[in-house]
Amino acid sequence: MTEYRVIATDEVQLEPAGHDNDNFQSVPQPCEHALELARALTALVQLPDEEGPWRQARPGGTRTVRIEPAP
Prior knowledge:
Blueprint lengths: L2 E10 L1 H4 L4 E4 L3 E2 H12 L11 E5 L2 E9 L2
Antiparallel strand pairs: 1-2, 1-3, 1-5, 4-5
């Protein structure tokens, strides 16, 4: 069974957000769980596809979320 990790990158401007870019990487998990986490991190009820990456506006910038097979 292939496991996937979720990678989220926040690209934000220092001035309005009070901090600069940030990254998150999940532990390896089944694809279904990774997609659920991607939905939560983008605040989307339904992802437009299962391929990604998915982008969502955030205060001061953008969050990009993608899933990839875990090594």
